[in-house]
Design brief:
16 helices, 459 residues, Aspartate Aminotransferase, domain 1, binds ligand F0G, alpha/beta, Aspartate Aminotransferase, domain 2, seven-stranded mixed β-sheet, three-stranded antiparallel β-sheet
């Protein structure tokens, strides 16, 4: 809305889902029972759930109407054809494999392309992407631009990939040993930061020159397009969808978790240009996901994805989306809370290492902040640091992650401005006695994706 400083949510609320308001002593008990891992809390023990923006969107009335129109035929359903048409128009890829979510597409593609001796290169692999690649026996290497790893540094496209390192890695490993180059837009684990069209174009031409497969991990492609339009010269007059189409055009294929910019609660896909590769992947799809025209999805899911992928590019929605995340981020900055600047599209990332400088990385400052946010305000967030990405060396010593972040992910079309103001107030209340907060140790953990189920003990 031009001429106003207040940006209103561009929707009215037709159906409400009550939040149960809890007390401090209830939350203390709940957190202890969840072994200080908010992934193990029940959702009704949480007041504001910022665990993820994935699958947590509120669907529109059009999408709910689409749910009723879903065609549940096993093969060749109308809803499948509708989804295929929308994805085809967006990505330009002739082959589409529907999957129940992003990681199912990752497992199919990366188990086929991966294996011992293969290397995958990304601006930053998301945790499930890395896990799928490493599970196949291959290695996953992250090469964000150096600016991307300095939380306070302002840069318009901190999600970009380091092109010099990309060329050097391809030369060092040998092009035939590169499973794929995976560009994550926006760069979730790197702070939800966007990737410029110029960077994507250069990656595309380096991959083409070396005959290396170039895959877009595109689950937040609409949010990325917003930043290109508003920050990259030459794109001011493009609409958001055209920008996304141009980026897809540069790649050999795309993996999408539709649970983000598909504005749905479940779904994903793998879109490819190469016939042989898509046939090989289809074989794997049929074994574990389902027949080629539904993958792991109901007809109604595919109908909702087709509608969501159109709605997400609507300017009023995208402006509200990006500005409401920035609203929270700017409030926290004005309180002096260290966050990744500039604010990303789907989440505010707090730099927990600076927030709790007295807690060493071996005692997980990010997890400590996650616990405090829950105790003080019933807010559920997630650590993206050494709990999620830390490794042990041969001596069993922790090799920490590059950053110790806490992600406040904002579900799409779910919370209002007063929820954002409440979150700021919780931070305000954490500030005075932050020196007294202690770290945690892990008492139990699985081998892969340990952050989901690990148990902790307060030190
Ligand atoms: N790629 C990226 C960049 C993601 O952020 C995610 C999921 C996936 C792939 C996997 O998709 O969940 O549908 O299997 N991210 C969620 C998150 C879980 O909270 O950021 P999925």
């Amino acid at each position: 809305m031009e001429g106003f400083k207040t940006i209103i949510e561009p929707f009215k609320i037709k159906m409400v889902e009550p939040i149960s308001i809890t007390t401090y002593s209830q939350r203390k008990h709940y957190l202890e029972s969840a072994h200080y891992n908010p992934f193990l809390l029940n959702s009704d023990q949480v007041m504001i759930d910022l665990l993820t923006d994935s699958g947590t969107s509120a669907m529109s009335s059009e999408q709910w109407a689409g749910i009723m129109r879903g065609d549940e035929s096993y093969a060749g359903a109308r809803s499948w054809r509708r989804m295929k048409e929308v994805v085809h128009e967006l990505t330009g890829c002739p082959y589409l494999l529907p999957t129940h979510q992003g990681r199912a597409a990752e497992r199919i593609l990366y188990s086929y392309l991966g294996g011992k001796g293969k290397t995958f290169i990304s601006n930053t692999h998301f945790d499930t992407t890395r896990a799928n690649i490493e599970f196949s026996g291959a290695e996953a290497i992250d090469i964000p631009i150096p600016e991307g790893t300095v939380p306070s540094l302002e840069h318009p496209f901190k999600g970009n990939m380091d092109l010099k390192r990309l060329e050097a890695l391809i030369a060092e490993k040998g092009a035939q040993n590169i499973g794929a180059v995976v560009l994550t837009v926006t760069n979730n684990s790197g702070g939800g930061q966007p990737v410029s069209m110029e960077n994507a174009r250069e990656i595309g031409s380096i991959c083409k020159k070396n005959h290396v497969l170039f895959i877009l991990d595109c689950c937040r492609i609409a949010e990325n397009s917003y930043y290109i339009k508003h920050r990259e010269a030459g794109y001011e007059h493009y609409d958001y969808k055209t920008i996304a189409q141009e980026m897809f055009n540069l790649a050999d294929g795309a993996i999408m978790s539709a649970k983000k910019d598909g504005l749905v609660n479940m779904g994903g896909f793998l879109a490819l240009r190469d016939k042989e590769l898509s046939e090989a992947c289809q074989n794997l799809l049929i074994i574990t996901e389902g027949f080629t025209t539904y993958g792991g999805l109901s007809g109604r899911d595919m109908e909702a994805i087709a509608i969501g992928l159109e709605e997400v590019f609507e300017p009023d929605y995208l402006v509200y989306r990006i500005k409401s995340t920035a609203f929270l981020g700017d409030h926290l900055t004005s309180l002096g809370v260290p966050i990744i600047r500039p604010v990303g599209g789907h989440a505010v990332y707090v730099d927990a290492k600076s927030f709790y400088p007295h807690i060493p990385v071996e005692e997980y400052p990010g997890q400590a902040l996650v616990c405090e946010l829950y105790l003080k305000g019933g807010i559920r967030s997630v650590e993206i640091g050494s709990v999620m990405f830390g490794k042990y060396d041969e001596a069993g010593k922790l090799v920490p992650a590059a950053m110790e972040l806490v992600r406040l992910a904002i579900p799409r079309r779910v919370y209002t401005q007063s929820h954002m103001e409440f979150i700021s107030e919780v931070f305000e209340k954490l500030l005075p006695d932050k020196e007294s907060v202690t770290g945690l140790e892990i008492t139990q953990e699985p081998k892969f994706l340990r952050h989901f189920t690990a148990h902790f003990r307060r030190l």
